[in-house]
Amino acid sequence: RKWKKVRVGDVVKVEKDEFFPADLLLLSSSYEDGICYVETMNLDGETNLKVKRSLEASLALDDDVSFRNFAATIRCEDPNPNLYTFVGNLEYERQTFPLSPNHILLRDSKLRNTAYVYGVVVFTGHDTKVMQNSTKSPSKRSRIERTMDYIIYTLLVLLILISCISSSGFAWETEFHMPKMWYLRPDAPEDLTNPSNPIYAGVVHLITALLLYGYLIPISLYVSIEIVKVWQASFINQDLRMYDDESGVPAQARTSNLNEELGQVHTILSDKTGTLTCNQMDFLKCSIAGASYGVRSSEVEVAAAKQMAVDLEEHGEMVTSTRVYGSTCDSSGTREIEVESGGDNNSNNPRVPIKGFGFEDNRLMNGNWLRESQPSDILLFFRILAICHTAIPELDEETGKYTYEAESPDEASFLAAAREFGFEFCKRTQSSVFIRERFSSSGQIIEREYKVLNLLEFTSKRKRMSVIVRDEEGQILLLCKGADSIIFDRLAKNGRTYLGPTTRHLTEYGEAGLRTLALAYRRLDEEEYTAWNTEFLKAKTSIGSDRDELLEKGSDMIEKELILVGATAVEDKLQKGVPQCIDKLAQAGIKLWVLTGDKMETAINIGFACSLLRQGMRQICITSMNPDGGSQDSKRAVKENILNQLTKAVQMVKLETDPHAAFALIIDGKTLTYALEDDMKYQFLALAVDCASVICCRVSPKQKALVTAWGEIRGCGGGSRWDSGWCCGCREASCEASLK
After folding, report:
1. Longest CA pairwise span in the chain (Å)
2. Which residues are annotated as a binding site for Mg(2+)?
3. Which of 559, 616, 627, 716 is buried most, with the most CB atoms less than 10 Å from its CB?
4. Which residues are catalytic?
5. CB crowding 533-543: b at 16 or more within 10 Å, else e
6. What is the phi/psi pair of residue 226, to 5°?
7. From the annotation, which residues make up the binding site for ATP?
8. Per-residue pLDDT at 350
């Protein structure tokens, strides 16, 4: 059946590598557990595959015949453009099942690595989410073309004005002076010289004047400029200095319209992950029960040390007096810069590199962790890594090991680490996960099943993820991982045993440019869980605008009184050539703003590693004090403090007499919330524009959108550029609303 004939309520079978013809509710797939892999590149530009799951109640509908007596009712939200939200219920066999975005297959996404799926049509045509998001294609016109248009319109108005004045004068002359001109035969006048009909004479003269004065408009200018642009494009394509030797790719001008925009960029706004870094995570270090493990240095530490050494040599200073962030210092507070990555000194043979796992420390490898002082906490740490996730395992037949299809590279690196530590995640069903646990170097493997009772998914607002499981002994555990600032606020009084050393280790990891997460757990009573689950199911099956708020409240009720186990540190390596590229951009006078969710220490050290921050550059750090309570007076005091910092910083930049002085602005997300308010946002942006580098750390996706929006308006001289089709791709409805 053609796409245009598909109707709401139809059951559709889609086969491998086909696009979904409408927004579908996944009922079953070729996999026994009802999962499928979806490529959403046409929706969000992401190349990694997404995992979608069907409801357990519809798993049996796995062939055409099984749908003969199938009848169900779907109650869901109205059509809307939010790609990452879906509210609805499936009523089937007198039961109600809550639906989430993980159950929905969106139109324009493609089925991958799955033989077939069955789905029921929810939205079709212009009601589908991709069509709700569609807009007219933007017209990319350069600044010179827009200027030419303005000139042409001005000349056109001038032409019409001159012609109107000329024709009006001719009509007046015809009516009042023409009878006195005997040589024009007023007794037998022609149409153009008839005093009794001056309007006709004026109109004809207007047309004549438009033709005569038409040379005021230089139509040939468009042709001339277009010829010049085509020649420029050919020169760009043949420019040897813009040829990349390594990849063998020359510069390619895909359009000649925007040639003159080259060299006009004065500010670049960039994310960190995937732009400055590779977005390929390696598990490098961890803190368990107050002890730090992992001896390798991160590439950011090495790159920062190299860059600082180069800068100091240029300033004629001694390299041995430089301190490296996150490194140990001698008694004088200084150390010699080391530019080689640390390794395991006890190993003579180099270890075969493992994707997602760069950890080196024999204290935890090959079952040696059993001889540590807190083996029970280490065991729990490994189990949290292996259980608390949403990934799908795939067996690699060549190596015999499992690889993982995860929603984020961080999650895949955690599972790779758990596997190497001896806790291999090997199977997932609709209701359980299976872990192969190896407790000693003897290789004895025990496969354990953990029944998944609830999954509280990660969002950028929650900044944490939890899973509630029942182990083989019948004990109910809540396993949680998330940002340290979120986890630490939810710790029980008896769960803060390792808080001090863990906080210290997290600071060290942040200074080394590593991405950190805290891990915690909680044991639940059967009665407490049953009561909570009843309320949580009511929130999941509710249909309304407050569903997300109800789910958030339900999650907050159970995600408390946690016990801290430790923290992880994964490395996202810098892309090759990033420091050299940023250095050349700085030499060209181009300013760079980096918007990242990292801690301030992490962002500063990455800034040094990628040449965003350089020796001799004066750093302006804008931070907010912690308000005492939530009263208006305390918030007013915080705002006044931030405003005072901004005022002093602006004065310092203006009073600087050295023409070669460079400033770097560093601000965190909490402070940015106040800085972007109406009464001080212009001061903040005026300061940011005057700085060579700007680092906004600990910022949310919504704050990234706001900073980019105001930065564009400020940089364009008051004109916004929403027609460029810019999007931050943060998946947040609140961010989308703020952009609109």
Report:
1. 126
2. 271, 273
3. 559
4. 271
5. beebeebbbee
6. -65, -40
7. 271-273, 411, 458, 481, 515, 596-598, 698, 704
8. 52
